[in-house]
Structures are given as structure tokens and as C-alpha cells.
Amino acid sequence: MSNVAASPARMPKLPARTLEAMRAGLPALTDRMVGAVIDEVPAFALAANESWRAVIYTSADQLLTALIEQLRGAADPTSSSTMSMQEVLNTAYHFGRREARQGRPTEVQLAAYRIGVREIWRDWSALAVRDGVGSDEVSVFAETSFAYLDRISAAGVAGHADELSRLGLARERYRERLVRALLRDASADELRLAADEASWIPPSTLTAVAVHRRHHESRGVITADPQTLEVPDDAVEMPRGMRVLLVANVGGKARAPFLESIGDAGAVVGPARSWMQAKSSVHRVLHATEFASTNLAGVLDTDELLMELVLGADVEALTDLQARALAPLDGLTVPARERLADTLRSWLLHHGRREEIAADLYVSPSTVRYRLRQLRDAYGERLQDPRSIAELTVALAGPRIRDRPEGDA
After folding, report:
1. How far is Cα of residue 22 from the mean position of the Cα atoms in its chain?
2. Of 302, 301, 319, residue with least CA distance to 311
3. Among 25, 80, 172, 305, which one is least packed by beta carbons within 10 Å?
4. Where are the alpha helices (H) located in 2-105, listed in sequence order?
């Protein structure tokens, strides 16, 4: 409540009969003030129908009573007030907190205060003029009334902001707890409970997206959806400068528009999984980031790189397989070995069709025939063995993600 405005420098001195008329007319003024607020602010009309009418009336009555007592104290310093200004500010502060919990924006209570002070001034200024209060004192009276409502408004706004902050922190804690439960394979019952505690409505699917922190604009597109969850930095091991998000309902036909929307985010996008299986998508993304350049531009769609991801699942095993598959060429010079390895790869991919192999390698068909003879001499019957063909196909498949040009998605 540190932003509450200060009280006015001077209180008006009103005649006793004006103050008594104000006090006597308090119930009727409260009725008119609350009625005007309910009529003109639809959100308060709804609140009144939700058994909030008593709270609204009590708050209004306290507000008016406290102001009358302050005015009476200015007119008669010997009078004693039964209600301190701090009590009124506390009431406004807690009313603002209740409004935040009800999900109503702070503009609603500010509108109510503006309407309230209009009704107060319309009623009380007429009484002051009737009783012959001078223009200077009426001016001070107006300043006092509006300054008083400013303080009340500020207290209500402060309560609203504090409650939103508290609710936001609590929500983030519960959402972090939910993500950690997803990543540790918690039971379905645990996950549903965690989702309820986080006030998070489970979507059909979740898709893991690793994005560079420096891409603020693209991150904004992703995090704008209230169902988006963020994976805590200490929950998984990820490349420095990246964060992992879980985005709702961007699978199937929604995937292509989503990929387009994040543009040049430098993002790695995992597969869409049912929300309870989001861990699978996170692991896919983390695996892909091991191969993708940290300076990646564009979007890396892991659904289009399944072969590379499979080949990169065990890098050492792939290296050993490549060494064994190409062992028959070990006696050749490095350039000759590379030419024959490229020819063997093209032969496998084009099912031995020489014209297509020649076009792929940018050589003549006669060169292809010559190289294929060398390969048959080196491999012998292994080129007829299904198991050997399968191993050669896997060993020579690629390019691997780590060999992809930067920015190639």
C-alpha cells in the first residue's frame, strides 16, 4: 500500500447541520451509490447477483462513514472518531484483493469508485450550498472528497496488484511442479491432480520446442498461449542460451502453421504427444539439439529428421559400423576410398541403376562401371548378402544432422 496518495493539506469546516444531514442521509446515499455502480458497471451487477451485494454495501457504508467522521473532526476537534483512515484503506486494499481473486480487472473497481464519488459529490455539495457554505470552503470540500476517493482507489489497486502477483507466483510454482511431474513419468492420477492445482486445462497434445532466449519475438508468439508450459532450467540438460517450452495443440494440421509462425526462431521442434507423454517430445528435442548448430537459423523440425536422429542415437556404434562396413576399402588412398564410398552409397540409394548413379555423382556411366568393378573386387559376395547390404545402407546413410549446413531446416 506504499502507492496510496497522501491526505489533503486542509479539511473543510462544514456546519454541524450539514454534517448531521449527511449522516442522516447516509443510508439513502449508500443505496443510490451502490445502485448506480451496479447499473453502470456490468461486472458489479454480476457480483451483486453472486451474493456480493452485502460486501459492496458494507464497503460503501464504511467509506462514507469514515469520510463524514473526518469532516466532523475538522469542524469539531473535540469530537472522537470511531474509525481510523487506516481501517478504511485496509478495507479497500482487501476489497481489491478479492476482486483480483474473482478475476475482475482493476478497471472495474476504478470505474466503481468514479461513479461513487460522483454520487457523493452530487448529494453532499447540494447540502453544503443549501446551508450557505462559502465557495472557498466548497472548493476545499470538493478537493477533500476527491482526494479521499483517490486514496481509496489507490489502496484498492494496490491490493489488486499484490493479489495478482501472489496468484501469479503460486500459479508458476504449481505449473513448474506439473512440468517436473511430466518429466519424471508420474502416474496419471498425479498428473491430473498437478494440472488441477495449477489451474491448467490439459490440451490434446503437447509439443516440446527448444528456442534461443535471444529470439524474444518468436518466444512471445509461443508463450502467448496460456497453456504453454516452460521446462525449468534445472529439470533437463539443454544447450546454453536455450529454453524448452511445451506448446499445446500444435500437432496434426496445426503443425505447419505453427512452424511458419515461429519463423526464424532458431527453434528445434519435437513431435506432438498426448499431454501425459510430453516427456517423449522433450527427449526428442534435447537429442536433436546435440546435433544442431547452436547458431541455427530457421526451424528444425524433428519430424523431418527421423533417420538422422536414429543414426545419431549412438554415435560410437555408428562410427564402429561405418569402420567395419568400409573396411574392404582400407588399403586405398584417402581420395580413392572416398570416391568408392560415394559410389557405393549412390549404388545403394539408386538400386544399381547406372544412369542415375552417374547423374548423382556427375561422372560418366563408364566411370561408374569402372568403380563398380572395383567395389565388387573389394566386397565380393558381401554385395549379395542382405545383412551386409543393410549394414552398408545404414553406415552410408546421411548426411547426419551435425553435417547439415547451418540454417538448413
Report:
1. 51
2. 319
3. 80
4. 16-24, 26-40, 42-47, 53-75, 85-101
pLDDT band at 347 (very low <50, low <70, confident <90, very high): very high
At residue 178, the pLDDT reads 93
In whole angstroms, what is the distance from residue 366 CA to residue 351 CA? 17
State pLDDT tens for residues 272-298: 999 999 999 999 998 888 766 545 567
Cell of 385: 548378402
Contact 112, 153 (CB under 8 A): no
The per-residue DSSP string of 276-314 comes to GGHHHHHHHHHHHHTTS-TT--SEEEGGG-HHHHHHTSS
List Cβ neighbours of 319 (8 Å cut-off, separation of 6 or more): none
Give the integer Cα–Cα distance in Å for 353 and 365. 10
Q: What's the pTM?
A: 0.54
pLDDT digits (tens, 9 = 90+) for 164-220: 778 777 788 888 999 999 999 899 999 999 998 888 889 999 999 988 766 555 455
Closest among 226, 227, 208, 209 to 277, alpha carbons compared: 208
Pairing of strands 229-230, 205-212: unpaired
Please tell me the distance from the alpha carbon of residue 203 to that of residue 190, in angstroms, as a whole number.
16
Phi, psi of 267 (to 5 degrees): -100, 150
391 close to 382: Cβ distance less than 8 angstroms: no
Phi, psi of 82, deg, nearest 5: -90, -5
Amino acid identity of residue 231, one-letter, is V
Quickly tell me which residue has 534445472 as its cell: 234
Contact 97, 159 (CB under 8 A): yes
Domain residue extents for the chain: 16-167, 203-304, 315-403
Give CA 289 to chain center in angstroms: 22
For the CA atoms of the chain, what is the radius of gyration?
37
Other beta carbons within 10 angstroms of residue 31's beta carbon come to 12
Q: How far apart are CA 380 and CA 71, in angstroms?
A: 109
- Domain 16-167 bears CATH identifier 1.10.490: yes
SS3 of 22-52: the string is HHHCHHHHHHHHHHHHHHHCHHHHHHHHHHH
Beta carbons within 8 Å of 296's beta carbon, 6+ residues apart: 266, 268, 406, 407, 409
Single out the residue of 246, 67, 95, 91 nearest to residue 163, CA to CA.
95
Cα 189 from Cα 176, distance rounded (Å): 17
